[in-house]
Design the sequence.
């Protein structure tokens, strides 16, 4: 019996290598984008940089997916609010504390989500160890970290938890990346008032717009495309 009715398929090894490559891009490019975003804070402020990142990502994703304003817009809107606040609070955090520490604190959000969904008691031990590590990084009782920056990183982690939940529901309610495109636009609107206050006229400077576009591609467009292609789904 001929099992190749659908025609030849790419070798499994090649598919696996492509998937691994996309996951690596999705994991590494946001960190590079965040490092570049920090260089924009002096002129745009964290809110201005977050707004341009979200706005450019919304433009690119709308051009790719061409979403219709239909379906459960309240769900897509809630997803956008979580997305906007997550990016803004994370940028406020890395404006005050080192990037690596901010990422570590923020990652407590998805880690907690994973443990809540787990049924293995051993996972609680790993969370406890992670919590101890975060406390040691923060250095309570005389640590040198900015407490406001730590608070923003914690807020980013909480928003990441909401993002994971809403991303899953939005992905089920909208085809492809259409729900994410709508959410990006909503997220940009959420951050816009603070961006206007912090950045003022700098939001329209061509040099900064070019840099912000690169940040957006690295931090939002590539990760969202890579994770949706490989079906692993975070941002």
Sequence:
């Amino acid at each position: 019996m001929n099992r190749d009715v659908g025609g030849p398929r790419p070798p499994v090894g090649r598919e696996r290598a492509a998937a691994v490559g996309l996951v690596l891009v999705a994991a590494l490019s946001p960190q590079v984008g965040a490092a570049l975003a920090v260089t924009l804070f002096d002129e745009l402020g964290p809110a201005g940089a977050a707004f341009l990142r979200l706005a450019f990502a919304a433009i690119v994703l709308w051009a790719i997916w061409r979403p219709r304003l239909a379906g459960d817009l309240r769900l897509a809107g809630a997803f956008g609010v979580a997305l906007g606040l997550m990016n803004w609070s994370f940028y406020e955090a890395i404006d005050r504390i080192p990037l690596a520490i901010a990422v570590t604190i923020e990652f407590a959000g998805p880690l907690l989500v994973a443990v809540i969904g787990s049924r293995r008691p051993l996972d609680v031990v790993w969370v406890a160890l992670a919590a101890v590590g975060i406390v040691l990084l923060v250095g309570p009782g005389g640590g040198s970290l900015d407490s406001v920056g730590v608070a923003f990183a914690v807020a980013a982690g909480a928003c990441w938890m909401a993002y994971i939940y809403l991303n899953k529901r939005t992905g089920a309610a909208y085809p492809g990346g259409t729900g994410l495109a709508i959410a990006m636009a909503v997220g940009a609107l959420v951050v816009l008032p603070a961006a206007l206050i912090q950045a003022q006229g700098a939001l329209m400077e061509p040099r900064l717009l070019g840099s912000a576009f690169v940040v957006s591609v690295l931090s939002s467009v590539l990760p969202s495309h890579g994770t949706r292609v490989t079906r692993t789904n975070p941002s």
User: Anything to note?
Assistant: Residues 1-6, 229-235 have pLDDT under 50 and may be disordered. The chain has one domain: 16-230. The radius of gyration is 19 Å.
